[in-house]
Design goal:
Layout (H helix, E strand, L loop, with lengths): L1 H25 L6 H12 L3 H9 L6 H11 L3 H5 L2
């Protein structure tokens, strides 16, 4: 049961990251992940390592951060989260 939950969380983080990357593309963010992470970090006022983890799909944002990201990019939280 725990294994399925972990797989679901990884899938959600990857789906989220793909959509976040799409949002970054839409605003003309640099292609390099390091530069994207720096930009996202400034946009959201989060540490660069957290921005990097979100962009690479290693981490799924907490509900409040998900809402903040959705507002920043003017997208629906359900779409952004992959639901």
């Amino acid at each position: 049961m725990l294994g399925r939950k972990i797989v679901a969380e990884v899938h959600n983080a990857k789906a989220f990251a793909a959509r976040l990357q799409r949002c970054m593309d839409d605003i003309g963010a640099p292609a390099q992940i390091r530069e994207r992470a720096a930009l996202l970090s400034k946009m959201l006022d989060i540490p660069k390592h957290e921005a990097n983890a979100l962009l690479e799909g290693r981490e799924f944002p907490a509900p409040q951060l998900l809402e903040q990201i959705a507002n920043e990019f003017e997208v629906d939280t359900k779409w952004l989260s992959g639901n």
